[in-house]
Specification:
192 residues, alpha/beta, Rossmann fold, 9 strands, globular
């Protein structure tokens, strides 16, 4: 009887607007051995987002009940909304041998660094703060005050990049996808 290899956990973080979601979505399309941990959030869905696919959209009371029950590996408040990664969403697939990508804000990545010390930490960087600002404004999902606040937070979050094993500059989505796929393949080889 052969034993199933435990999957790796990849914690992908970076400032809001850096392209984490697009990058992760494309990596999932390219590698069938990778699964995505769908986070919980109290924020409202953006156009096109689906409950249970992009996020588990819950109200604040439901989120707080999950926190109290110990359901989350990490959770944080960001821009007035709560976000969290459930333990169950990570444990079951990795036991089945799937690699897991956790796309989280930097606060969550710091918590996961303590709770999942074997996780591979990947920080996605913008080519520049000017490019990041343009990307946030192109989204057209927040007002100017929220965008400026996201940029202030991004400046603080960039310092966390040094604590990650891998840093990928998202100046070209195709290049960034290739780099993240290489990180995943290398981690698999090391674990085999």
């Amino acid at each position: 009887m052969s034993r199933v290899r435990l999957g790796n956990v990849f914690v992908v973080s970076g400032p809001s607007g850096v392209g984490k979601s697009t990058l992760v979505r494309r990596v999932l399309e390219a590698d069938p051995g990778v699964r995505f941990s769908v986070s919980h959030t109290t924020r409202r869905p953006r156009p096109g987002e689906r409950d249970g696919v992009d996020y588990h959209f819950v109200d604040a009371a439901g989120f707080r009940a999950l926190v109290a029950s110990g359901a989350f590996l990490e959770w944080a408040e960001y821009q007035g909304n709560l976000y969290g990664t459930s333990r169950a969403a990570v444990d079951a697939p990795t036991r089945e041998g799937f690699d897991m990508i956790l796309e989280v804000e930097v606060q969550g990545a710091k918590q996961l660094q303590a709770r999942l010390p074997d996780a591979v930490r990947v920080f996605i960087l913008p080519p520049s703060l000017e490019v990041l600002e343009a990307r946030l404004r192109e989204r057209n999902t927040e007002d100017d005050v929220v965008t400026r606040r996201r940029l202030e937070i991004a400046r603080e979050e960039l310092a966390y990049a040094e604590q990650c094993q891998h840093r990928i500059v998202n100046d070209s989505i195709d290049k960034a996808i290739d780099e993240l796929l290489r990180v995943i393949r290398d981690a698999r080889r090391e674990r085999a």
